[in-house]
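Renewal narrative, Specific Aim 1. Our central claim is that a sequence can be written position by position from structural information alone. The example that follows is taken directly from our test logs and has not been curated for this report. It begins with the structure tokens describing the chain, in the order in which they were read.
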């Protein structure tokens, strides 16, 4: 696991060359079909040589959850194990890793009518107003969320209104089902964040050159999409959508996309620093791959 542009996929493929592993994607954006460029999905030739489980699962019109990921991951891990191989999970969606390792709180099912009501309030008053309501009733959750984090604010308010309980109260009762595997949790962290920022900028430039804008235009034609869908809230896709909708100038797309990706990497690093039982390596150190391979061999 590691932040975007830390070299996770390249490392996973190098380990697959040496050990009897199968790769399992832990990426909330790569689950969407036809979203290839902006998610940095491996190309077809790479996937033919290094198959990845749990990519291209759903349409960009659909939603995918941490609970569904946990179920899917445990299923494919059992299948891999039955074939005499070892699951190697690789990705940057830290919530999915957490769900797999610790289980999930027994939260209520989504209520479509209530969600529509909350969204209508947000249209009238703005998400910061709902964030302020959350700050009064569930300050611990509100403190973790940005005032415009619509998806998470909506869910937290929804749970409050449905049950009268905070997310924290649900998580406190979380059983935390154990994972039936002996884990080696490898984290790739940069010793110099400015170098990671340079990688992020270079990769976003490569995405634009590869046709990211055309990809989003094609998605808008092929699917019934809206800016609030999780697929279109992915970093890069959101900025292109805003540019195509005329909300930001084309000249600002590159800088906004790079900035959003850096902020995303910052959130990933924050998650990792609070995660227990990690074996940490410098993703900028050329000898890290050999050290990791040695640790993997010892673990296996």
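The sequence written for that structure reads:
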């Amino acid at each position: 696991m590691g932040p975007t542009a830390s070299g996770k996929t390249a490392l996973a493929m190098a380990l697959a060359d040496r050990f009897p592993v199968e790769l399992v994607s832990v990426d909330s954006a790569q689950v969407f079909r036809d979203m290839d460029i902006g998610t940095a999905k491996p190309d077809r030739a790479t996937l033919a040589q290094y198959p990845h489980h749990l990519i291209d699962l759903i349409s960009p019109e659909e939603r995918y959850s941490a609970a569904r990921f946990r179920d899917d991951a445990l299923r494919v891990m059992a299948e891999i194990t039955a074939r005499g191989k070892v699951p190697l999970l690789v990705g940057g969606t830290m919530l999915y890793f957490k769900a797999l390792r610790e289980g999930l709180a027994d939260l209520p099912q989504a209520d479509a009518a209530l969600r529509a009501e909350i969204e209508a309030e947000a249209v009238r008053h703005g998400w910061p107003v709902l964030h302020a309501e959350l700050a009064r009733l569930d300050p611990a959750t509100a403190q973790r969320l940005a005032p415009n984090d619509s998806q998470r604010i909506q869910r937290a308010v929804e749970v409050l209104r449905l049950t009268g309980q905070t997310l924290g109260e649900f998580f406190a009762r979380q059983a935390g089902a154990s994972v039936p595997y002996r884990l080696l949790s490898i984290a790739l962290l940069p010793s110099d964040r400015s170098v990671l920022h340079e990688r992020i900028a270079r990769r976003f430039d490569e995405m634009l050159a590869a046709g990211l804008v055309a990809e989003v235009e094609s998605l808008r034609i092929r699917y019934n999409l809206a800016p609030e869908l999780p697929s279109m809230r992915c970093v890069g896709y959101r900025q292109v959508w805003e540019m195509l909708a005329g909300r930001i100038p084309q000249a600002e797309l590159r800088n906004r996309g790079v900035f959003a990706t850096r902020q995303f990497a910052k959130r990933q690093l924050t998650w990792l620093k609070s995660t227990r039982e990690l074996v940490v390596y410098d993703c900028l150190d050329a000898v890290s791959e050999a050290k990791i391979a040695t640790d993997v061999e010892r673990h296996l």
